[in-house]
Design brief:
Blueprint lengths: L10 H12 L5 H8 L3 H13 L19 E9 L5 H10 L4 E6 L6 E7 L2 H12 L4 E8 L16 H9 L2
Length: 170
């Protein structure tokens, strides 16, 4: 788990990233028109962002509802602290079917996971799989009653202050 400092971008980069985050299937023509650039300039900027590792892939945002994945749990996981535990346990948690996200944290718990499944039986299997990981001492889950917002967009969720940091390099 590495730390990153904010890279520097310009307004066009941010606008381009915001557009492709909102719609991964947007055409070069539409982007060029929206950003008042040529198609080749948009293509060049997209390739540059990919080469820099800013854009790591182009994917579809699939709605979990049609698959019956309505049961969501936030689980805190406490583990035994041994050398290399954070990476080893984190990878094992992330490999469990149904686990969407894993966060290594500091404080009272070591990891927080977000799990999405269809029913209680599946949730029980996820929790049993977590507890079976060598070094896991305890789990504590909270079940989500209602998802208020589900927008994983990076650029769309940045405040003006955050945008200023990446624009000005401050």
């Amino acid at each position: 788990m590495s730390e990153h400092t904010a890279e520097q971008f310009d307004e066009v980069d941010l606008a381009l990233l915001e557009n492709i985050e909102a719609d991964f299937d947007v055409s070069l023509e539409t982007l060029a028109e929206e950003l008042d650039l040529s198609k080749s300039a948009v293509h060049y900027r997209l390739n540059n962002l990919k080469e820099r590792g800013v854009v790591t892939g182009v994917t579809a945002d699939v709605d979990p509802a049609p698959f019956g994945l309505a049961m969501v749990a936030i689980t805190e996981v406490s583990v035994t602290h041994e050398q290399g535990y954070s990476e080893a346990v984190g990878e094992q948690l992330a490999a469990i079917d149904g686990v969407e996200q894993v966060f290594y944290t500091m404080g009272d718990v070591d990891f927080v996971t977000i799990t999405r499944v269809q029913n209680r039986e599946q949730m029980n299997k996820v929790i049993e799989s977590m507890v079976a990981i060598d070094g896991v001492n305890e789990t504590s889950s909270r079940f989500v009653m209602n998802e208020i917002e589900r927008d994983p967009g990076v650029i769309a969720n940045m405040s003006e202050g955050m945008r200023d940091v990446v624009l000005d390099g401050e």
